[in-house]
Amino acid sequence: MQQQYQSCIDACNACADACDMCSTACLQEDDVKMMARCIALDMDCAQICRLAAAFMARGSEFAGALCQLCAQICQACGDECAKHQMQHCQDCAAACRRCAEECRRMGSTAAA
Amino acid sequence: MQQQYQSCIDACNACADACDMCSTACLQEDDVKMMARCIALDMDCAQICRLAAAFMARGSEFAGALCQLCAQICQACGDECAKHQMQHCQDCAAACRRCAEECRRMGSTAAA
Amino acid sequence: MQQQYQSCIDACNACADACDMCSTACLQEDDVKMMARCIALDMDCAQICRLAAAFMARGSEFAGALCQLCAQICQACGDECAKHQMQHCQDCAAACRRCAEECRRMGSTAAA
Amino acid sequence: MQQQYQSCIDACNACADACDMCSTACLQEDDVKMMARCIALDMDCAQICRLAAAFMARGSEFAGALCQLCAQICQACGDECAKHQMQHCQDCAAACRRCAEECRRMGSTAAA
């Protein structure tokens, strides 16, 4: 049953990895202060994406609701990352936006 | 700033612990099959409660939204646990309901 | 820097997904009681694999040590799953063993 | 059975909360760059403490091994936090050291 979720699970795992990489890279930037909100959102987004993957893989009755929230956090994180020119931020923004799209679809399907 | 969240954080930690204890105790019951949905909801509830505690402790901008979802999952888990007479299920139901109430309050305050 | 970890991160994400799927499938078996240890180890293994992926993606100074422990848990979970004929257990056993191998390598490299 | 773990579970939850609060407070400091390692260790420590609490509450066969690793990470995080004068770092250092001690005891008992 959970196979229907596979592309969304993959997007969540990829987004979590990108966010975790981005937070560490941000901490090594010269102007860390400018990256503070990016780091905070990276933490939130990585954690909720890993949880969304777990809920989907388990076929949880709350997988759809969690994906809807995950989509919002991915969107916010992607928008913040997109403001910064560094490659890790641009990579993270792309992963976040792809994941937001997958989670939005999952959330609306599951709620139907 | 995060101190305003303390009673909700405490309720989330207590609920997560109760759910994790309940899932293990359910797995040791003679009729495990009857406990299947209880175990599944215990897993979901324990994980989202630990994440909600983390978001609140970090003062995340998504703490309120996560608490709203956490309240729904606590409610469902508490309702399921309440159906079973075993002490671990009754203890878990009580922890879930207290946490649902705290998270509902947190969710509505944060959204205001 | 974290790119060196990519194949181990991928194995951890795949193993976590397989364990989460397996725990749900086990809960739907006729003889759930026989699957109790499998379900318990699936929970442990899924959670530690997701954490190991996070630590590696962040390039944590404790990534190697966490991978060493993750390898042990994957090994135990894979050995337990391998005892059961169901496809979900066999798939999970394979994912666990691949992840155990990747984590063992990561753990020894990082400790060197 | 898991009640024997209660004081260690409580220490893990308190340490996770303190680390999550500390990471956010560090991100708001003027000299964030100086806090980079503290933030990174706070993330590791918060996550492993929440996982250790989960493993103990479930009575996992790997609870002792996870607590041993958790003790090391708490120690490292506490030592780093102790270098900084801010109240959030001093509070976090105290929570980390208490948790390291509880986890060390748990790890050695469980391994016996």
TrEMBL record, chains A, B, C, D:
InterPro entries: Csp_YhjQ, YHJQ-like. It holds the Pfam family Csp. It comes from the Bacteria. Transmembrane segments: none annotated. This is Four-helix bundle copper-binding protein. It comes from Massilia norwichensis.
